[in-house]
Amino acid sequence: MTVQELLDLIALYDSWVYGFLLAYAMGKTGPIPMLAGYISFSGALDPAAVLATVLTGTMIGTQLRFAVGRRYAPWLYEKFPRFAPWLALGAAGVERYERLLLPLYRFSKGTYTLIGVGAGASRLGWVRFTIFDTLGAVGWTFSWVLIGVAIAAAGAHLDPQWAAYAGLGILAAGMLVAAAFGRHLKRTLLPQANAALAEAKARRQHATAPVQPAAPAT
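Above: the chain sequence. Below: its structure as tokens.
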């Protein structure tokens, strides 16, 4: 199958491609939107539709995660002890660094669910979360998609084969860097995660402790 035949096939089944993009953006923050941006330059996909689909998917994904954290955080702490420290760290991080963390966390591998669910488990209000998270969703979506478009545009003026290799190279490098950074970040933050879990447990115990009746005046 030639490249043109593949593009024609994508154009023919574009609704399925948009559906895949929506589901992917709901579940992950990897570089697939860059590939969609690259393809959209050829006309097989609509660039505006790609941007709208990816943006909608990533915002739905974070809203669902926030809802899970807000509703089921106590159950998650109890049933998933290995995840509990990271959930506590996500909640603590969102409370302390919301203006920095929420716009940027999509650019790091392994933090999509951690921050989304952690924000729901935190004391951060839903409206405030949505405002800062939307800024991050817009920045992440436009960055990935427009990088793909830019690579395709450069290839159209220089060498299409070079553009394809450059795109694959950036895709592979981005995945490797994100994976390595994610592993390093996990090792570095583990002590802080355990400390955040201890703090969260103490907070929950304090909130559920029975109120002692005041001693009668003498």
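Residues 3-203 form one domain.
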